[in-house]
Amino acid sequence: MSTRVAIIHREQVSPSANCALRLPYAIARSQHTRVDNICHTLVGAALARTGLRSRTALASATMMIGANFPDIDIIAVPLGRATEFRRGWTHGLLALVVLPFVLTGLMMLWNRYKRREGEKAIPRELLLLSTISIWTHPTLDWMNSYGLRWLMPFDGTWFYGDSLFIVDPYLLIMLGAGVWLSRRREQSGLPSPWKPGRIAVGLAGVYIATMLVFQNVAERVAIRDVAGTGRARENLVVTASPANPFQWRVHADDGARYFTGSIGMRSQRLAWEPESLDKGADHIAVATAVRNPAARPFLDWARLPFYRVLTSEAGVFVRITDARYGASIDVPIEPITNDALPQNIRERNLP
């Protein structure tokens, strides 16, 4: 059995398609990282604009950097260890104790060698601002369906808030408007330039709390409506929809298939989609693939995995895909021959 694993991809998942358009995972992941970190940066900037920026020199920079600081684990991507390290070591409770001191030290070094005349950073204030901003990062990361490993490095269990979509336009608008209005008031010499920042942070907090309540309501509706159907024997996942706080997505796992549906906050009913997605986990090649040590980090991350056995000129491999985002990994299988495969997949070659 080969331990080599091919490039991870991101697919457009369709219940009726075994293998849809594939994009390099590194490209797709970088797009999500860029958009996601805009929100984190705005959180730091908005908090600074509430008045915290006046506590010490380098306050604004510290809070914007701190709001992104746990994502230093991005260095694992070019090393090919993204799945193992993302949202783990640098997002866990131990790191959240250590990282504020690291950031404070870095900012004090910057202040020592690059500070302007008359500006002096106060270490205890930088430590306070570093702690506040760094802790906002995993809190927001936990709130979406991607999840977070709070207990790393002691325990790799994933935790999911499922309350915010990974890119939330309403948070971007609220926080961005607060930062812009606060800066404009300050530049115009108007009183209370911190007021828009405080309003933006307050509104964002109310919005997040509301989404947490909505998720809880939607999950209760899903549990109620799925009871007795057998569709959620293995798992039931209720997550936010993009740009629609009143619509919630449902994935139910009966062990062999995924059933998808949606719940409206107004109707308080679960509406199932007509098609389901076969997990494809009963093929002998899949049993071989999931035992491959190189596939384990991806399977540990994948919350809703499904499997497709495919062939190419290079041989047979299993594509393992997470139905949440379409991210997938190809695991070569040896020494299964083409004749051992079912007829419907023998001639399905990759483009």
Question: What does this protein look like?
Answer:
This protein is α+β, with helices and mostly antiparallel strands and 351 residues long. Strand 7 (305-312) and strand 8 (315-322) form a beta hairpin. A five-stranded antiparallel β-sheet has the order 2-1-9-8-7. It has a four-stranded antiparallel β-sheet with strand order 3-4-5-6, with helices on one face. The chain is built from ten helices and nine strands. The protein has helices at 25-48, 59-66, 82-85, 93-114, 123-142, 169-188, 195-226, 284-290, 296-301, 343-346, and strands at 9-11, 22-24, 235-241, 244-253, 257-264, 270-278, 305-312, 315-322, 327-333.
Blueprint (SSEs and pairs):
Elements: E1 9-11, E2 22-24, H1 25-48, H2 59-66, H3 82-85, H4 93-114, H5 123-142, H6 169-188, H7 195-226, E3 235-241, E4 244-253, E5 257-264, E6 270-278, H8 284-290, H9 296-301, E7 305-312, E8 315-322, E9 327-333, H10 343-346
Antiparallel strand pairs: 1-2, 1-9, 3-4, 4-5, 5-6, 7-8, 8-9
Helix pairs in contact: 1-2, 1-5, 1-6, 1-7, 2-5, 4-5, 6-7
Give a quick set of tags describing it.
five-stranded antiparallel β-sheet, 351 residues, four-stranded antiparallel β-sheet, alpha+beta, disordered C terminus
